[in-house]
Structures are given as C-alpha cells and as structure tokens.
Amino acid sequence: MIRILLAEDMNMVRGALVALLNLESDLDVVAEVERGDEIVDTALKCRPDVAIIDIDLPGLDGLTAAARLRERLPECRTLILTSLGRPGTLRRALSAQVSGYLLKDAPPKQLAEAVRRVAAGQRAIDPQLAVAAWGGTENPLTERENEVLKLAAEGAEAPEIARLLHLTTGTVRNYLTAVVAKLNARNRVDAIRIARESGWLL
User: Does position 187 have pLDDT exceeding 80, yes or no?
Assistant: First the structure.
C-alpha cells in the first residue's frame, strides 16, 4: 500500500483528489493539509511514501515545502500537482529535486500512475512540459533581484521593499532598474509579467 500525503488549499479539489486516489486499491491518503507550512510536520507524524503538493499554497509555497520535506524526510518522494504549466516552474521544481510534476488537467488515471512511478523511485513528468523546459532559458536574475521583484509583484513600493529587505530605497530602485534591463522589459510591470510567464515568480 502506498501511503500518500496530499497538500491542496482548495477544499473541493482536495476532496475530489482524495476520493479519486482512494478508488485505487494500492493507494491510501493518510493525511491532508491545506497550507504549505503544515507539510513537513504532518509528514514527520504520518510518514507517507509520497507527498502530492500543489505549488500555490498559503503559508509556504509548494516548491519550498518540497525542498524542506526532502531535507527532513528524504524517503518521502514528492509529486508536484499544479495548474502552472510553465517551463520555468518545472525547472524550479527539478532543481528542488521533486520526483514528479503533473498538471491538474491530466487524466485521472495519469495521477495514479504518476504516484506509483514516484513511489517506485522513478520520475513522472509531463513529457511535453519536459521538452519545453529543456529548451527554455535560465533565470538571469540574482537571488536578491528575485526577492525585490517578488515584493514589487505583490504591490510593494520601493520604500517598503527597502524596509523589508533592510536596504536603502536607492538600492531597491537600482535593483528594479537592473531587473528591467536584464529581462528586456519595457518597465517594472512588464518585467513582472515576463518573470511570471517564465516561472521565475510564483
């Protein structure tokens, strides 16, 4: 029996996934969480074989949670289930060393098969997405530039970003100027759009 932890914040989707997985005689959902920051503690208590994690979770995003889960419970394999079919997001998932990456609009049988493959120590990644990811470009932004852009994308202005990151307002503006230049964007809004579409911003 393959023991599964499911992390999904939408109640109806989570309920449907649990029902779907429990139809399979060899799969058993032993825990459900709706927040990313609940994943590691729950997994340490119930010791699942596979964690199915949505990327866009409150509290902590799914990829960060997956990386932390790998550190604390390496025997639990992770399968990312998402509606984000962007190559850049898949590249981030692969760098977080997840075992599988499946889109939410995949046929139900594909999910059960992906769980079995991941539990067996294999990779389960949407093939079309994998091809697109390997053909894509790497994120040209530094970690600090990414942080600044993420806060800007959340609506923070330069003075607030400066306060949050313990920088001067001038330094934040310099970072944003560098980001716009690196992404060949027209302005900050365009830079945010480009980074999101590339999967560099969640």
Answer: yes
**Amino acid 195: pLDDT:** 85
> Helix %, strand %, coil % for the chain, to 5?
55, 15, 30
Q: Which domains occur in the chain, in start order?
A: 2-135 (3.40.50.2300), 143-197 (1.10.10.10)
**What one-character-per-residue DSSP string does 110-152 give?**
HHHHHHHHHHTT--EE-HHHHHHHHHS----S-HHHHHHHHHH
CA angle in degrees (0–180, nearest 5) for 172-57-153: 25
- Chain segment 109-152, per-residue pLDDT in tens: 899 999 999 999 998 887 656 655 555 567 788 989 999 999 99
Residues contacting 26, CB < 8 A, separation 6+: 1, 2, 116
**Nearest alpha carbon to residue 147 among 131, 135, 160:** 160
